[in-house]
Amino acid sequence: MQDYGDELLDATTSISRLTRMLRRSKLSERACAEAGIVLDRIGLQILGHVRKAEQPPSVKELAEAMQVEGPHATRQVQRLVARGLLEKNVDPDDRRVARLALTPEGVELIDRYHAVIKGWMRDAVADWPAEDKRQVCRLVTRWVDDIETYFDELDNQPFPRARP
HTH marR-type domain location, by residue (predicted)? Predict the structure, then answer.
């Protein structure tokens, strides 16, 4: 029975290469320029997270999802609220908690940004058969979800003792 360990490690290396390439190519800066947007990467990430959230997140939930410290998330959210891209609404179940929602301007901005990125991604695989595109999207998402779940569980276990 083949364990596919080498192939999975190679795929992980490819994902790392992709991540480095996207940072190096200044993808977010290029997309902002093409979309006519002036916003930094963290602002885009916050708007994107709120846009995709099933329900409006609190600042604490946003910070946890983005793996940043609460005060950092709070400062960034305040900046986006001041720009009119986000709004805070009182949680009806717990009036001490503010829920984040995109303003119409925030929705338009992040959708415009995503349209540029989606166009580039479609162009990059334009010559792929449709079934290959569907499969890679489904499988990469499933793979990342499963790895995330596995490592979340692993994080809750004690570290093994190092061997001398």
Answer: 8-145
